[in-house]
Design a protein that fits this description.
Elements lengths: L6 E3 L5 H9 L15 E14 L2 E3 L11 E12 L3 E8 L5 E5 L2 H12 L14 E2 L2
Parallel strand pairs: 2-7
Antiparallel strand pairs: 1-3, 2-3, 2-4, 4-5, 5-6
Length: 133
């Protein structure tokens, strides 16, 4: 998932969204009919972004001299033990991307690796979003 050329593309048809859709077992009713409540936790961070609002990356494109810009990123983890967890990433002014993880801890580890988000800054409410800025 990570690497020097990880490129996030719109969830509506890019290669990343097709790959994620093919691997994500999230059912149509994402609020779960199994009786298990879906976890949603939130945080906000700041990071360097390369690319455009339609195709952004957390690292420079190979062979490109394009400059990065710092953006505020809203980050959310949502899911449950049965269906896995999505790490949802929403840089200000850019499209939202996500990645699927087997466990909550895997999603937390990915947030730490991608955005340097510590585990103690997550909140249960988007209104009371903690921040790692």
């Amino acid at each position: 998932m990570t690497g020097p050329n990880l490129v996030m593309q719109r969830r509506t048809g890019g290669p990343l969204s097709r790959l994620l859709a093919s691997r994500s077992p999230v059912p149509t009713d994402h609020h779960r009919s199994s009786g298990n409540p879906m976890l949603s936790i939130f945080t906000t961070t700041r990071t360097q972004i390369w690319g455009t609002k339609d195709a952004w990356s957390l690292s420079a494109f190979r062979g490109s001299d394009q400059l990065s810009h710092e953006y505020i990123v809203d980050v959310e983890i949502q899911g449950d033990e049965k269906n896995g967890y999505n790490l949802v990433m929403s840089p200000s002014g850019h499209f939202t991307a996500d990645s699927w993880h087997q466990t909550k801890q895997d999603a937390l580890d990915a947030a730490k690796e991608l955005f340097d988000v510590p585990q103690d800054v997550w909140s249960d409410s988007p209104r009371n979003r903690n921040t790692s800025i």
